[in-house]
Amino acid sequence: MNIKAIVARFLSEEFAPDIKADEFDENMNLVDFGIIDSLGVLKLVAWLESDFDIVIQPEELNVEQFSTLGVITRFVDGKLKPGL
Questions:
Q1: Residue-wise pLDDT tens for the chain (84 aa)?
Q2: Is the whole-model pTM more than 0.70?
């Protein structure tokens, strides 16, 4: 399973049970649509760190960094492939 599918499944299960994981638009703003809020971002960050075994630095914590499925996917991919 790829990063996008894993994150979409988590978002669906934890924040938007009425949206199936495969129905998430990768460009939909999760904050603007009320799917996650600032506390949700913290929950998402904790899960990303645990599930993908990455470290997210305090300076990387901003709502824009976790605003869409596409942005989150690219962020995690960059963390998993440093230097690329």
A1: 699 999 999 999 999 999 999 999 999 999 999 999 989 999 999 999 999 999 999 999 888 889 999 999 999 999 998 755
A2: yes
Per DSSP, the three-state class of 33 is coil
- Tokens representing residue 2 in the block: 């790829």
Contacting residues for 40 by C-beta, under 8 A, at least 6 apart: 14, 15, 30
Superfamily in which the 3-80 domain is placed by CATH: ACP-like (1.10.1200.10)
Give the number of other Cβ atoms within 10 Å of residue 26's Cβ.
14
Hey, where are the domains in the chain?
3-80
